[in-house]
Design a protein that fits this description.
The longest helix has 13 residues. Strands 1-2-3-4 form a 4-stranded parallel sheet, with helices on one face. The chain has 3 helices and 4 strands, in the order βαβαβαβ. The chain is globular, with a radius of gyration of 13 Å. The chain is 32% helix and 13% strand. The chain is of the alpha/beta class.
């Protein structure tokens, strides 16, 4: 059987190995530091993880604003590891909007 083609940020049919739950790095004013959050996730992969789950409860998804999530997703799509990121456990109030943006960027959403 033919498998669905990858959409950019990952292909659920090829996921194997260790996937770490990434933390969200916050600035002193409690806004998301997108650059440091992505660098942390990339470092987990550099250190041997096969991929990284973004947001979720470890990433404090419920505390990150919608605009910050969208900016992070846009920047993740430019990462050299974009195929190794999963978007995890979105907060129910913003789930449809964020899932729509993530889908357009090709993310795998759990």
């Amino acid at each position: 059987r033919d498998q669905p083609r990858s959409r950019g940020l990952g292909d659920v049919y090829k996921r194997q190995g260790i996937y770490a739950a990434s933390m969200s790095v916050l600035n002193d004013n409690l806004t998301l530091n997108i650059t440091k959050t992505i660098k942390h996730a990339e470092r987990l992969i550099d250190d041997g993880c096969h991929g990284v789950a973004i947001f979720g409860s470890t990433g404090q998804a419920q505390l990150i604003t919608v605009s910050e999530k969208i900016k992070l997703l846009n920047d993740l799509s430019k990462s050299k590891y974009k195929e190794k990121f999963m978007i995890w456990q979105l907060h129910y109030r913003t789930e449809i909007l964020i899932a729509s943006v993530a889908f357009v960027l090709g993310a795998i959403i759990f």
